[in-house]
Amino acid sequence: MKIQIPFFIVILLVLLSIRGNAQNDMMSLLNKDEKPTVDYTSATFKTTRVVIGQSSENPPKGNLLFMITHHFGALNSGYEQLFGLKQATVRLGLEYGATDWLGFGVGLNTLGNTWDGFLKVKALRQSTGAKRMPITLSIFGSTSVYTTKWADPTRKNYFTSRMSYASQVIIARKFGERLSLQLAPTYVHLNLVPSYNDHNNIFSIGAGGRFKISKRVSINAEYYYLLPKQISSTPAYSSFSTGVDIETGGHVFQIFLTNSMGENMESIITQTTGNWFNGNIFLGFNISRVFTVVKPKEFREKKN
């Protein structure tokens, strides 16, 4: 028994087939005309600090970040000092994202009544797509000036003796959604040192990481290995810090333990006198809040 297919159905099927092929050819031509996109990796670290040291991040373009850094005294200071809660050093800082790749900031530290200012340039950004870059590379430079009274006011003292400098090359990579790591070779120059046995040029190698345990919580750690025989007049240890990041909307809380009382890179590298094995550990926290100063162009266009 033969099945008869109406002639108009055959014609309809042929026309649909031709139309489908034409659409596919047209889409192929359009796709060829489209420019390939670059997908930049975001939030390698949640804020501009891994724990107390610099991360590869800057505030977003047009955003002002206000950060409070607070260190209590040593946990082994005993009951009379409430295990360090009666002692504290604080840094108040402002940071601004001038562009997608340039950030700068200033801060006031109560430790040594020190002012600091810095620039951070994101020279390379981790990306996929049309432009593949496996790492983010940031270059950081800062200057600090301590303003405490001179220990010996009778001698001739120079303003430049109050100054110190730090520079870093920060190499970071985000491995999936949970793990981020960075390496940070660091150089510090001190214009004035306590003795002839102390070096003016101090070198350290830093490493840090972040592991997300939930959408808003991560565990962070960092270590700055201080090359030996550079500081002789005071006890000097490598800085190690670990803590937890908690994101709550526009705020990021970082609660940590560290053997460093310093809150800027110069003091973190050269003035870490705490020893983890002796219980000379400091409890501290960072609170950062971001404010939008200049709204993104896309948002302004939509609003208009």
Total E-strand runs: 14
Give me the Rg, rounded: 27 Å
Uncertain segments: 1-5, 7-16
- Helix/strand order: HEEEEEEEEEEEEEHEH
Question: Tell me about the biggest sheet?
Answer: 12 strands, antiparallel, barrel
Strand order of the largest sheet: 2-3-4-5-7-8-9-10-11-12-13-14
What shape does the CA trace take? globular
Q: From the 3D coordinates, which CATH architecture of the largest domain would you assign?
A: Beta Barrel
CATH topology grouping of the largest domain: Porin
Give a structural overview.
β10 (201-212) and β11 form a beta hairpin. With 304 residues, the protein is mainly β. It folds into two domains: 1-34, no CATH class; 40-303, monomeric porin ompg (Porin, Beta Barrel). The protein starts with 6 loop residues before the first helix and ends with a helix. It has three helices and 14 strands. Strands 2-3-4-5-7-8-9-10-11-12-13-14 form a twelve-stranded antiparallel beta barrel. The protein has a two-stranded antiparallel ribbon with strand order 1-6. The chain is globular.
